[in-house]
Structure formats: structure tokens, C-alpha cells
Amino acid sequence: MSISTPGEHLTSLEELRGALRRFASDRDWDQFHSPKNLAIALSVEAAELLEHFQWIPEADSAVLNPDQHTKVREEIADVLLYLIRLADKLNIDLLAAAADKIQVNATKYPLDKARGSSKKYTEF
Amino acid sequence: MSISTPGEHLTSLEELRGALRRFASDRDWDQFHSPKNLAIALSVEAAELLEHFQWIPEADSAVLNPDQHTKVREEIADVLLYLIRLADKLNIDLLAAAADKIQVNATKYPLDKARGSSKKYTEF
Amino acid sequence: MSISTPGEHLTSLEELRGALRRFASDRDWDQFHSPKNLAIALSVEAAELLEHFQWIPEADSAVLNPDQHTKVREEIADVLLYLIRLADKLNIDLLAAAADKIQVNATKYPLDKARGSSKKYTEF
Amino acid sequence: MSISTPGEHLTSLEELRGALRRFASDRDWDQFHSPKNLAIALSVEAAELLEHFQWIPEADSAVLNPDQHTKVREEIADVLLYLIRLADKLNIDLLAAAADKIQVNATKYPLDKARGSSKKYTEF
């Protein structure tokens, strides 16, 4: 992820957040962007992403053809955009929240217990 | 989003990606992390996030109490972590994908047609 | 629900189950219908249903226009069809499972505590 | 599905619908049951159902252990209960809607084209 090129447009979460603010503001869409509605939209986009994988075998899901890959890339982008927007509306720092959660998970799934097991893992 | 403090741990999507790789590798979890399974997990986490908003009025969703805010922040983190992991497995650059999608949306929702309307917007 | 007209086609869950069995068998689709895949499909359909409500105010969701109503009716049907199919594959009696769950809920949400509150209700 | 025992309680969709009406009415929960909120709840329950399958291999999903089976049965029941409730609020006859949709699908997926293929099927 090329977030190392300062000055360039939209190469960080902060820049994306700013672009989404302008996008909504320019279209007078803030009225629709309650956290509740954004959480719905995020969930719907996550399902659209999942839809691309629903009938294919697990092994095939790692080797998408170019057309599938392009579509999946777009859906992944949609999920990120709504996630950035929702976090912005709730004043949540996405990177800090994720870093904190990794710490929580490290405690929750200690190496000796978690290795090779998806048992407890279902609660990740 | 404090992505401007170089040297610190986990302050960029790239660092989070690296941490998640180590996390899975250390626990021998790559066997579970097919894109199909990660897309399922992402969708499940998005629903857990949505669950916090399901019975509250739209207006209240912008003013969560501290306990709700903490839980929502954790769920948002989970969604981001799975999104980073899925994108990694599919060699997708999250920031570039999101920047491209904003361009697509700008064309799809021109200012004059989209202003104040959620009509076409339902297909965003 | 007109399940009272015996002899007519597809007027009960059992008849729908039978029709779906033939539908899948005729198309050689049982190979795709693992419970895991059906649970994914069910979740995707539930999200497509939800999509119709995502940007409309809560109050408006009770007064859909005819076009919206038709589309929502189709999505509701899709959810039921996958639910019947999944239950069939797992040998689960849908009506008995639902009747049992209502009993569980009655114990979980006693009248005196639950009245007018959506608090505990979030775990329904 | 034992819907053939008239007189017994909750052995049809109609009886379940009636029981759910009383359940909500007794608890003054109709205020929360807008179609929008019910569609959210349905989607959340579908994800909770899916969660049970997220890390298990597709083949294993057909042979759940008794504990998993019990939990999956409960989640399936929750999905059906919210589906009945949502259909009720929108005056939709679940069985008729499902029967109609099977007809639509039969036209959409003609035998000669659909056999053994999950291609077009992704739009089912």
C-alpha cells in the first residue's frame, strides 16, 4: 500500500476521509449518513463482496480470474469507503482502533492454545 | 488518524497487514484464511457491528453512550482487520482500490443529478 | 397465509421443500448446496432485502410504494426458499424449531421486565 | 415438517404469526418493529447462523455435531421468526410469495442451460 508518497492525492486513510466528506457534502448526502444507515450500508456491501465467493470452492477463492478479481476489488473498496465514513461520523481513529484490537486478540488467543485450532477461533 | 508518527508500531495499513500476517502465521491459521472464509468472517463482523444499531432510532445512532461507543469501536476494528487480511490474500492495495472507487462514484453520481437525492443513491 | 387449501400446489412448507428438492435435482445443483454455501446464500439474500430499506426513514419503511413492495416481496421469498433448503439439508423441522424458539424467548423476556424496553431486547 | 396436526399449538406459519403478534403486543415492542428494523434484525440473525459455518470445511458443514446442530437450529428459528414478523408487517403472504418465486426461478434457470452450472446461478 503506497501510503508513503506524500503530496499525492488519496494515498492515506486521512485523505480518503476528506474526499468522502467533500463527496457527501457536495451532494447534500449527510442527511442520509447517520451511523445507523452507514452500518446498514457497510453490511450490505460486505454481503455483495461475499456474494462473489458463495458458490465457488474454498480453494478456488484464492485464484480468482481477472474479471472476478476486478469486481471483488471494487466491493472491497466499497466496504472500506463506508467503514471510513462510519468511523469519521463516530470520531473513531481506524488505525488506532485496529492496533488496539490486535493487542486484545493477542491476549485472547495465546500462541500455545490457539496454534492450528479454529475452535476458540470462531470467536475472533 | 495518526499515521504520521513513523517508527511507532502499527500506525499504517501496511504495518497492520504485517502484524496480521505474523499473527496468523504464529498460530498456523493460514489454513483457515481462504478468501472465501475471510469474506464470510468480514460479513459476520459487519453484522455484529450493525447489531449495535438495530433497535435504536436513527438520530440516537450519532450519540452513542461511552459503553456503546467502545463496543462499536471494537467491531469497526474487526471489520478493518478482516478487510486488510482479505485484501492481502488477494494482492489488492486497499488505498488504491478505494481511491479508484471514489473516481468511479464521482462519475456515477454527478453533482447536478445526485444532490439531495437518495434515489439513484441506493446503488452506491 | 393460505395453507388451508389441500391439493393445491406449493401451499405449505412441505410442498415448497419438495419443489426445491426437485428444482436442485433437475439442475444437478445439489453439489453446490452444502449447508455452508446455503448459509452464505441466505445471508446474501437477507442483505439484498435489507438494501431496500437502507436509506429510507424508519417511518417510511412501513409504507412502501407498489414497486418497492414487489421487490421486497421477492427478496423475502428468496430468504424463505434458502431457509427451507438449508433446514432440509440439516434435517431440521422449521415449524417445530420456530415453535421451540418462541418458548425460549418467552422465558428469556418475561413480561414484567421486557415491557417497552429494547434494552435486553438487543439479544433477542 | 409436522404441519398436519390441527388443533395443536404453533404448527403452521399462521399460528406462529399470531403468536409473534401477541408476543410483541404483550411487551409493547411494536414500537421497535418497523420493517426497516426487522430487516436489520433478520440480516443480523442470518449472519449469526452463518457464523457457525465460517471456519469449517464445506464437507463438514453437512455433518454437524449435536451441539452445533442445536445451535444452528436455534439460529434458523430466529431467522424464520423475524421473516414471519417482517412479512406480517408488510402484509405479505410468505407461502404465496415463495411459490411465485419458484415459478420465476424456473423461467430464469431453464433446465438445459442451468444443469450442473453455478455460473448464472450466482444470480439466483
Describe this protein's structure:
The structure is a homotetramer of 124-residue chains. In chain A, helix 1 (13-26) crosses helix 3 (66-89) and helix 2 packs antiparallel against helix 3. Chain A starts with 12 loop residues before the first helix and ends in a 10-residue tail after the last helix. The longest helix of chain A has 24 residues, at 66-89. Chain A is mainly α. Chain A is globular and about 50 Å long. The first copy, chain A, is 60% helix and 0% strand. The first copy, chain A, has helices at residues 13-26, 35-51, 66-89, 94-108, 111-114. Chains in contact: A-B, A-C, A-D, B-C, B-D, C-D. The interface between A and B is large, with 80 and 80 residues.
Helices and strands, with pairings:
Four copies of one chain form a homotetramer.
Chain A: H1 13-26, H2 35-51, H3 66-89, H4 94-108, H5 111-114
In brief:
4 copies of one chain form a homotetramer. Chain A has 124 residues and is an all-alpha fold.
Order of helices and strands of chain A: HHHHH
Number of helices of chain A: 5
Uncertain residue ranges of chain A: 1-8
Indicate the percent of residues in helices of chain A.
55-70%
Chain oligomer state = homotetramer
Distance between the termini of chain A: 25 Å
Q: How many strands, what sense, and barrel or not for the largest sheet of chain A?
A: none
Structural class of chain A: mainly alpha
Average per-residue pLDDT of chain A, rounded, comes to: 89
Strand content of chain A: under 5%
| Largest interface, Cβ cutoff 8 Å | A-B, 80 and 80 residues
Number of strands of chain A: 0
Principal-axis shape of chain A equals globular
Overall radius of gyration of chain A? 18 Å
